[in-house]
Task: inverse folding
């Protein structure tokens, strides 16, 4: 882990380099955080989402983030916004009965300690998250987010969220915008959180179109080239049947995306670090340090907003006491050694879901043609299994069952139209 001393010396070095060579002003870090409620990881993989795909094609993403807390919305969004687990922020359900936001505020409030003029706006469709006076707040929830509210779009639908976001994105002084789309969760509750449910998949695809409009407005900002936007896209939980809140894999298995000019192009995957609510699968605190989880969202946003300032590293600031980690720090490779795939130079873009896995997994390809040849090779170089399939128009999903093989590391070698790509697969 990078120490504060090292970070300061790095900052000093960057300052020196800037003085010596550059006449240009550093681009101002800003954050667009888009929350899509209740989107299962496997559903996002299969949905037709060109706008989200474009962010992934240039950014850092994971389809293998595991929820370690209660998979209710209130608990999950509180974890993402504060960068700490429920033991600290104390929101374990949707009633926000006794939150500890005084000690663990939302990330814009923390950023304002260093950047007092930071302008942060949120546009929320789900009342319990935004309104300190609603009925869920009978116990006296002190709203302590650091955000200013733009509109309460709750009853107006996602078009209203997008319209309000576009108005905010016209403001040159805007630094942080959080917008929340809830239609996906509402559709899951009414007809099922399931990739085989067309209504649920349509809701995901509708949100993707809204995101396309928001991103178009962002890229049109007259000041865009002087700014360094971190675009974060997350969900809060998955679902099972028409509900969520429990500890099943389809509720816990989630995803997130980070994209922007200073974000590396990487796929990150990690083993399930366990849950604070499963006695059979308790949290492994070592794994938590190397696998993508919800608490990383706020810390990654803070690391981005505070870069170039004299403020302490949010990941190690003792008075903030955050649980998450940033995926943007320069020492990412040493901090998260095992499961990062550099997909910059991948000849064939593909996804492996999940990875690591128990031997049962799927490999997904989008928009390729011709025959795909896939071989799974063990550490001794012996082929354990191979398949040849014809690519579909759009999405091609190839299931594998290696559950009978010994646990450990395997390489997957893929050939398509004369191009080759290799990826690690971890069986555990
Ligand atoms: Zn939710």
Result:
């Amino acid at each position: 882990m990078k120490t504060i001393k090292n970070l300061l010396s790095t900052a000093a070095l960057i300052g020196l380099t800037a003085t010596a060579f550059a006449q240009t002003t550093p681009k101002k870090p800003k954050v667009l955080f888009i929350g899509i409620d209740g989107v299962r990881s496997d559903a996002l993989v299969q949905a037709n989402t060109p706008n989200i795909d474009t962010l992934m094609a240039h950014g850092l993403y994971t389809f293998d983030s595991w929820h370690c807390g209660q998979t209710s919305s209130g608990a999950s969004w509180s974890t993402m916004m504060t960068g700490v687990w429920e033991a600290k922020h104390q929101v374990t359900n949707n009633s926000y009965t006794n939150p500890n936001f005084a000690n663990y505020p939302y990330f814009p409030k923390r950023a304002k300690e260093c950047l007092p003029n930071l302008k942060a706006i949120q546009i929320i469709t789900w009342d319990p998250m935004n309104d300190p006076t609603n009925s869920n707040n009978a116990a006296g929830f002190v709203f302590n987010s650091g955000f200013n509210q733009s509109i309460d779009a709750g009853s107006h639908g996602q078009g209203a969220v997008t319209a309000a976001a576009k108005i905010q994105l016209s403001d040159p002084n805007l630094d942080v915008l959080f917008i929340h789309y809830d239609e996906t969760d509402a559709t899951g509750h009414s007809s099922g959180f399931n990739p085989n449910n067309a209504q649920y998949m349509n809701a995901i695809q509708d949100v993707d179109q809204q995101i396309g409009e928001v991103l178009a407005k962002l890229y049109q900002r007259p000041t865009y080239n002087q700014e360094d936007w971190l675009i974060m896209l997350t969900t809060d939980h998955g679902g099972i049947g028409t509900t969520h809140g429990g500890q099943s894999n389809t509720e816990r298995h989630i995803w997130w995306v980070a994209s922007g000019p200073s974000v590396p192009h990487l796929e990150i995957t990690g083993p399930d670090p366990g849950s604070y609510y499963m006695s059979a699968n308790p949290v492994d605190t070592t794994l938590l340090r190397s696998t993508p989880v919800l608490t990383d969202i706020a810390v990654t946003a803070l690391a981005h907003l505070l870069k170039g300032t004299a403020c302490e590293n949010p990941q190690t600031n003792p008075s903030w006491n955050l649980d998450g980690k940033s995926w943007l720090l320069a020492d990412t490779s040493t901090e998260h050694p095992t499961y990062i795939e550099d997909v910059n130079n991948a000849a064939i873009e593909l996804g492996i879901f999940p990875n690591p896995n128990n031997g049962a997994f799927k490999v997904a390809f989008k928009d390729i043609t011709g025959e795909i040849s896939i071989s799974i090779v063990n550490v001794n170089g012996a082929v354990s299994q191979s398949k040849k399939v014809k690519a579909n128009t759009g999405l091609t999903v190839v299931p594998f069952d290696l559950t009978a093989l010994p646990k450990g590391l395997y390489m997957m070698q893929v050939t398509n139209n004369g191009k080759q790509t290799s990826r690690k697969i971890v069986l555990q």
In short: Confidence is low (pLDDT under 50) at residues 1-22, 133-143, 330-340. Residues 37-38, 73, 185, 236-237 surround zinc ion (CB under 6 Å).
